[in-house]
Write a structure and sequence with these properties.
binds S-adenosylmethionine, seven-stranded mixed sheet, two-stranded antiparallel sheet, single chain, alpha/beta, 11 helices, 304 residues
């Protein structure tokens, strides 16, 4: 699929001032592969079906109702709430969520801080779902979404007061370009909150995992290399926490799946397929055998 690269001017009241067509971004083979992985059909309607099965009143859906499906990162909403505290983001700010998925943490970040938040993601199916869920929650005034690549952000330099990226780096081979793009669109003094899976002492990984069907979609580097590339992009590192132990605890009881999977009405299997239990089990093994780690970072664009 060819993705349209739009140019968006963020403003303080969250309105999109201009949306000019610049051309088409012809995705290189690897990104196409990743785009297909994150492109389920008819996702919004499947989520609505799940909410109906759970007996939810669609006129009163809450952030917590959606949490099983829309916070697609290790430790879900618990991690999002910790990151929000760490961020220091305030209501007057406009924050960019890079690799926002279907926007669960984008919405929670806006709801809890009062900030405007704009999310971008490679997957147009996710972005369409993110917009429709945001309307369902009546949050569209302060939460916006656009399909775009983290490697070519469709925003001016120095546009955002803060940036936020939860578990996207695993799919990004060119980490320096991603981080340089984030740096470019941040205002001087702006903070970038990153919550990312990295490699660890052992290799290789067990596949599939929640972010990749096989090794062609997963680009993990050890924490030290990740730290180096953040600094190479120009950032100072303000906070660096290893959260691997919390991830290990969260997956401690994930057993090897046997037979046909019994899946919940609402869950991340809707985002990445019915083999999610095998993916979760492999993540558990990768964490326990120190093949992956989980790192929380606040990086700051220095004031000039
Ligand atoms: C594991 S999901 C995390 C989604 C979201 N941050 C969350 O925590 O719920 C990874 C996301 O990164 C997106 N992604 C991967 N590579 C990307 C790229 N180059 N540019 C933008 N988004 C990308 C995927 O489409 C997917 O939505």
């Amino acid at each position: 699929m060819i993705q349209v690269l739009s140019f968006v001017l963020p403003t303080r009241n969250c309105e999109v001032q201009g949306l000019a067509f610049l051309g088409s971004l012809i995705m290189v083979k690897d990104i196409k592969h990743i785009h297909s992985y994150y492109s389920p059909n008819d996702l919004f309607n499947k989520i609505i079906e799940g909410l109906n099965k759970l007996g939810k009143d669609l006129s009163k859906v809450t952030l917590d109702d959606l949490q099983p499906v829309d916070e697609f990162h290790i430790r879900g909403d618990a991690a999002t709430k910790e990151l929000i505290k760490l961020s220091g983001f305030t209501p007057d700010m406009h924050i960019l969520d890079v690799g926002c998925g279907i926007g669960g943490s984008t919405r929670r970040l806006s709801r809890e801080t009062g900030a405007c938040v704009t999310g971008i993601d490679l997957s147009d199916e996710y972005i369409d779902t993110a917009k429709r869920l945001t309307q369902l929650l009546n949050m569209q005034e302060r939460v916006k979404f656009h399909a775009a690549s983290a490697l070519a952000l469709p925003f001016d330099d120095n546009s955002f007061d803060g940036a936020w990226s939860l578990q996207m780096n695993m799919n990004v081979e060119d980490k320096l370009s991603w981080l340089e793009e984030t740096y470019r669109v941040l205002k001087p003094g702006g903070r970038a909150v990153l919550y990312e899976v990295c490699g660890n002492k052992s290799m290789p990984l067990y596949f599939p995992v929640p972010w990749a069907q096989d090794s062609s979609m997963s680009f993990l580097v050890p924490p030290k290399s990740f730290r180096d590339v953040i600094k190479s992009a120009g950032f100072d590192i303000d906070v660096w926490n290893d959260k691997t132990d919390l991830a290990q605890q969260a997956f401690a009881n994930v057993a090897e799946p046997m037979g046909e999977p019994v899946l919940p009405a609402l869950g991340v299997h809707l985002l990445v397929g019915n083999d999610i239990k095998t993916k979760a089990y492999n993540l558990h093994r990768n964490l326990d055998e120190e093949r992956v780690s989980l790192i929380e970072v606040v990086a700051v664009k220095p004031n000039v």
